[in-house]
Here is the input.
Amino acid sequence: MKIFHVDSSAKRERSNSRALSRGFIENLRAEGVNVEIDYLDVTVDTPAHVTEAFAIATYHAEHERTDAMRATLAPSDALCKRLLEADAFVFAMPMYNWSMPSAFKAFVDNITRTGITYKNAEDGTIVGQLSRQKALFITTRGADLRPGTVFSSMDALTPALKAAFSFVGVNEPRFVDAQPLQFSDQEARTEALRRAKAELAGVAAEWAALEKMRVGSAEVETA
Ligand SMILES: Cc1cc2nc3c(=O)[nH]c(=O)nc-3n(C[C@H](O)[C@H](O)[C@H](O)COP(=O)(O)O)c2cc1C
Here is the structure.
């Protein structure tokens, strides 16, 4: 299973989202999945912000683009290719100011591409091209935003991720939200990490079962 694994926390060794995404990959391996990783740290290789040149080039049809337009779009093309070639996505990020880290938003702006990750069908509908891939979002939050909490209405992260990735065809993404990890007592933080790790182990077991079925049916087809 080829996984496009993206980390987005400004923190490194101390980052919980990085530790949880690493742990999830280890869970998959422990489940016997043959994992191949394509790794991107968007805080190191940060995709460019949208520029005027990008905004113009992206809405020109492929055959109308100048060499300069193609050069502008090349890094975004390359990121889209990495998504299309993956079987699954593991996107890990902390909540920053109720939404996603700006480096991950720059990533979203680069991979939402007309004619590549989504296509305009003749009947006017949008057809996302990433419907084959499984997706897991691991988010870490300082506060507790679960339903029924004071901050529950402040979650602008989950809806933004759902909207952006459903547009490019990602069906039924899984979310594991570790919360509260900062603005709470130690006991609540420990419990939040324990819950998140248990949920991640569950997702890994599900993905492993699906992968075994997929590999099994591919072997039957070639037999
Ligand atoms: C700049 C910044 C903004 C943050 N904004 C929020 C926020 O809006 N809501 C929240 O619950 N936590 C917020 N936090 C806390 C982080 O989401 C939390 O500590 C998270 O666990 C960090 O994940 P990491 O360990 O992977 O970096 C913020 C942290 C930073 C550094």
Observations:
- Helices lie at 16-30, 52-58, 67-85, 102-111, 157-167, 186-222.
- The chain has a mean pLDDT of 97.
- Residues 9, 11, 15-18, 94-98, 140-143, 181-182 surround flavin mononucleotide (CB under 6 Å).
- Residues 186-222 form the longest helix (37 residues).
